[in-house]
Every structure is written in C-alpha cells, then in structure tokens.
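During the second year of the project, the team shifted from modelling isolated chains to modelling whole assemblies. The rationale, set out in the original proposal, was that interfaces cannot be judged from single-chain predictions alone. As a representative example for this report, we include one of the complexes processed in the last quarter. Its constituent sequences, exactly as entered into the pipeline, are reproduced here:
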Amino acid sequence: MSTQHVLVTGANRGLGLEFIRQYLADGATVTATVRDPAEARELAELQTRVGERLTVEPLDLLDGDAIDALAARLSDCAIDVLIHNAGYMTRHDFGHSAWADFETHFRINSYAPLRLAEAFARQVAQSTERKFVTLSSLLGSVAANDSGGLYAYRASKAAANAILKSLSIDLRNRGITVLALHPGWVRTRMGGANAPLDAPTSVAGLRQVIAKASLANSGDFLQWDGRTLPW
Ligand SMILES: NC(=O)c1ccc[n+]([C@@H]2O[C@H](COP(=O)([O-])OP(=O)(O)OC[C@H]3O[C@@H](n4cnc5c(N)ncnc54)[C@H](OP(=O)(O)O)[C@@H]3O)[C@@H](O)[C@H]2O)c1
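Output from the structure prediction step:
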C-alpha cells in the first residue's frame, strides 16, 4: 500500500481523472481539484468506493487567490506529488490571434504552475517524495516546432517550461524535484479522437517517470516514456 498523498489539478476528466484512478488503485490518498465539484460525477462515484482517501476541492486556476486559499486549507498536509495537470488550448493560427484568449492560455498554462509552487512549496517540502510536476507539451518545445501555428498554446507551454526550470533551481535547497512532462498525443477532449495513445497508457508511463525521478533529474523536460525532449 502506498502512503503517498497526491494532489492533481483539472481532475474531473481526461488525463487528470486517469491520474486519480491510478493513484487511488495504488493505495494513495488523493486530492482532486476541479472547477465544479457538483459536475464531477466520476469523482463522486470513485468517492463512494474509496471514501476518505479521495477529497474533491473546488479550484478555478484563473483565480490566484483561490490557489492560496486552498493551500491555506491544506496547510497541515504533506503533499508527496503535486501534479498541475489542468491545461487550456484553443486554436490560434496566423491571422486569428485573440488578445483575451491569449492571456487565458498564459494564466492557466504558465502562471498557475508558478502560483501553485509558491502556494504549496511548504506542503511539498514536508512530504517524503517532494515532487512538483506540471503537464507541459511537446508543442511548447521551440526546437521541435516544425509545423507552426497554435501561437498561444505553444507560447504558454514554452513559458511554463522556462518557469519550471527556474523552479527546479529555486526549490532545490528544499529537496523538491521539479519536472515538465509531455504526456504524448493522447485521446482526451484536448487530444481528440485521432490521437494514438490512450489515457491509461500515458498516465501509467508518466507515473513511472515521476516515481523514478530524483533531485538529479530536477528541471528535466521528459515525455511519458521517459525520453528527454529538446527545449
Ligand atoms: N491530450 C493530449 O494529447 C495532450 C498533449 C500534450 C499535453 N497535454 C496536456 O495535458 C494536460 C491534460 O490534458 P487533457 O488532454 O487531459 O485535457 P482535457 O481532457 O481537455 O482536460 C483539461 C482539464 O483542464 C481543466 N481546466 C481547464 N481550464 C481550467 C481552469 N481555469 N481551472 C481549472 N481547471 C481547468 C479542465 O476542467 P473543465 O472540465 O472544468 O474544463 C479539465 O479538467 C493539459 O495540461 C494539456 O495541455 C495534453
């Protein structure tokens, strides 16, 4: 039985929900954050089976004060693995950029990881595993961009990578391992029906990458099967 406490953002569907399922199956205690708990039916169903091992907390990542308030509510909890999974993507191709929506990408995909790290560093540092993980994307790699477009999403995930690299340096003396992870192209609402990977396979791989990681890997940009990705 695992004694881990794992917190996952955007846990009502897609990869976030799959993280919850797999960590619960492993015996972990899990905090799932969602925008609207009343709509999170799969989590409610899981709760009937695992009881107090699963807590569902409301959190809209556009609201920085709500992040701080959640951290205050969980101030006594050691969090072994914090996974910022929630993400936002709409198409921004050349000639179709939109100012307000660009900002939304940056708030959820780039600034939320920093705000979460600032709010939860103490809870992660007091745990056994001490891991802070964000789901980035290969689309945030500047070096691997060979198809253009998707301006807001690519830029916001590239910014997330830069922020995670700084966090890996700033949090090293607290023993916190920071990772930027790409889940592969996965069949979820964001990934679409044509994606080659299913969520259980992607998340099983990501969990292995997280479990194996140590301070020696902090600041790495890795994909679901452990391969290092170019920045
Ligand atoms: N699927 C892929 O192929 C792929 C590839 C590379 C990277 N990723 C990354 O993997 C992560 C998970 O993606 P996914 O495929 O599981 O996507 P998804 O099925 O579209 O799920 C996105 C999640 O983010 C949540 N979210 C969006 N805006 C939020 C906000 N303001 N506050 C709180 N939660 C919010 C959504 O909640 P609501 O239900 O309330 O909207 C949902 O739970 C994302 O960071 C994504 O960028 C995915």
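The chain is about 40% helix and 15% strand. Helices lie at 14-25, 41-50, 64-73, 99-125, 151-170, 199-212.
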